Amino acid sequence: MYLIDTHAHLNDEQFAQDLDNVVARAVDTGVERIVVCGYDVPSSEQAVKIASRFNGVFATVGVHPHDAKNYDEQAHQRLVELSREDKVLAIGEIGLDFHYDLSPREDQFKVFDAQISLAWELGLPIVVHSRESNPEVMQVLSRHAGNIRGCVIHCFSGDEGLAREVLDAGFYIGIDGPITYKASQKLRRVVAMCPLDRLLIETDCPYLTPVPYRGKRNEPAYVKFIAEEIARIKEITIEELAEATSNNARIFFGGIL
Ligand SMILES: [Zn+2]
Ligand SMILES: [Zn+2]
Fold this sequence. Notes:
Number of strands: 8
Largest sheet: 8 strands, parallel
CATH architecture: Alpha-Beta Barrel
Strand order of the largest sheet: 1-2-3-4-5-6-7-8
Number of domains: 1
Order of helices and strands: EHEHEHEHEHEHEHEHH
CATH superfamily: Metal-dependent hydrolases
Low-confidence stretches: none
Bound molecules: zinc ion
Mean pLDDT: 97
C-alpha cells in the first residue's frame, strides 16, 4: 500500500520534539509521501527545510487568510524565492476564512487573489482553504478560470451542490479526519458522489484527528483511517483507494511525487 498525505503541518511546533519518529511511523504505515503546507512566511520556510531533510517529504509555500494582514511586498518576494526551491510543489495554503476573520476580509481577498496570480506565473497548482466562505472562494476562483494550473479545495466541508461546482471547475476535493466522525453524513454523500479520480486524502495534522485517535494529536500515519473510511464508502479495497488517490496526488502536484 502506498498512501500520500497531501496536507500536513509538520512545520507546526507540536512536531518540534519528535519529527523523526512521526515521519518514521508514517513510512511504517505505508505513507510514502507527505506534503508539508506553509501558512505564513516562517512556516513556509520551515516546510522547505523539513522537505530537504526527508526523502519522501515535499512542501508548499503560501500565506493563509489568517495571516493576510501581514502580507506585504517583502513576504511576496520571499514566497517567490521559496517557490523556486527543489521540493516545492504548490502555492498554499491560501484562501478565505470568515469563521475566525483573523485578518480583515478586504486583506483576505487581496492576498488570495495575489497568490493565485503568483501560482499561475510560477506554473504551480494551488491548495485552497475555505471556511464559511465557500461562495466567495468559488467567485474568486472563477475570475481566474483558465489561469489556474490545478486546484484542490482542501479539507472540504461543503455539500453535494458545492462539490458539483468544484468538480465542474476541474478542481480536486481534499478529504480529512472528519470523514471518520459519526455526524459527517453530508461529507459521506460528497465522497459517494465524487469520482475516484478527483479525491485527495490529507490529515491537516496536528488538527482534525480521525477516529480512533480523535482528541489526540493528529499525524500523517493516521491518513490510513481516512483512506479506510473512503474505501468503505466507495465499496473498494483500501489498496485500490490508495492507488487511486496517490495517482491523483501525482497528477495534481505535477508528477514530481
Ligand atoms: Zn486549511
Ligand atoms: Zn492546513
